Amino acid sequence: KRPEIFTFCRALKEEKFAARRAILPVLQAEEDERFVKEWKKYLEYEAEVMKDVPGWKVGENVYNSGRWMPPATGELRPEVW
């Protein structure tokens, strides 16, 4: 039979993981909100820079793959701001 301390430690680990699983949707929502704000700033910047280019459509995918790929983690073009 296992000593009680091991059972207690396992219960603490389970509680910690349950808390992490519970808070994950909130963290994801915060990240999504941050992403949308940064993306809007980026599109405004793109519109300003490319305003004199005929036929340029702001926000349009230049690769024409048909798939949306999320940007890499971290800031969107931090050198822009």
TrEMBL record:
It holds the Pfam family GRIM-19. Belongs to the complex I NDUFA13 subunit family. The keyword Transmembrane applies. It is a single-pass membrane protein. It comes from Gossypium harknessii. Its main location: mitochondrion. This is NADH dehydrogenase [ubiquinone] 1 alpha subcomplex subunit 13. It is found in: Mitochondrion inner membrane. Keywords: Electron transport, Membrane, Mitochondrion, Mitochondrion inner membrane, Respiratory chain, Transmembrane, Transmembrane helix, Transport.
